[in-house]
Design brief:
This is Zinc metallopeptidase. The protein is mainly alpha-helical. It has seven helices and three strands, in the order ααβββααααα. A hairpin with a 4-residue loop joins strand 2 and strand 3.
Length: 227
């Protein structure tokens, strides 16, 4: 009933997303077995980068879970999974440096990160309501509900698209800082690129899926208006 030719592209993008997630897991597992040259733990790396840039007020905490690492902009805390916090592998230092990249972005008021923070409260509302509006619009053939659902879903898409430069920039910062600060050697760089590059693919795939879904809904909306 709701099948649309755009679904083919969405299925392809969804497949890309699954592949990207698998690649992240595989790369993390592979490079978790390869020690970084200078023996820093993820916690050491995070603390060193923060301290060298005067961010003594940003704590580094350990949390449970695998690949649960993140920077909390509300509390201004870098949280690292146990594997990353205690690990001395290329994967561990790469992830730790990436999350610290977000803390540096926050301190510098990096434009895209600031915009993402501003959109986030709205996202909490629209992400839950948009699917309900779209579903109701399709069931009852209510063009106005579909239009409103599209408007709400646009916020979700905007958030995911804005996330792309935020994540790519954090990874770029991490690579440059680790080399410049002597945290990794040039021989470690290949592994760092593999780990962070795979993670970037997951964000790219998620954004692509959302954009294609939005285009699909807009096409359906226009078709309903013409009927």
């Amino acid at each position: 009933m709701f099948f649309h030719p755009m679904d083919i592209l969405i299925f392809i993008a969804f497949g890309l997303s699954l592949w990207a997630q698998s690649k992240v897991s595989n790369n993390f597992s592979k490079w978790s077995q390869v020690p970084a040259t200078f023996g820093y733990t993820g916690a050491d790396v995070a603390r060193k980068i923060l301290n060298d840039r005067g961010l003594f007020h940003v704590p580094v905490e350990v949390i449970p879970g695998r690949l649960s690492d993140h920077y909390d902009p509300t509390s201004k805390v870098v949280r690292l999974s146990e594997d990353v916090y205690y690990g001395t592998s290329i994967a561990s230092v790469s992830v730790a440096a990436h999350e610290v990249g977000h803390a540096i972005q926050h301190e510098e008021s990096y434009g895209f990160l600031t915009l993402r923070h501003q959109i986030f409260p709205l996202l909490n509302i629209t992400s839950g309501i948009a699917p309900l509006l779209l579903l109701a619009g399709f069931i009852f053939h209510a063009t106005s509900l579909i239009g409103l659902g599209i408007l709400f879903f646009s916020v979700v898409v905007a958030f995911q698209v804005i996330t792309l430069p935020v994540e790519f920039n954090a990874s770029s910062r991490a690579k440059k800082i680790m080399l410049a600060d002597g945290i990794i050697s040039k021989s470690d760089a290949e592994g760092v690129n593999k780990v962070l590059g795979a993670a970037a693919l997951t964000y790219l795939a998620a954004a692509l899926i959302s954009v294609l879904e939005l285009v699909k809904y807009i096409l359906i909306f226009r078709q309903n208006e013409e009927d």
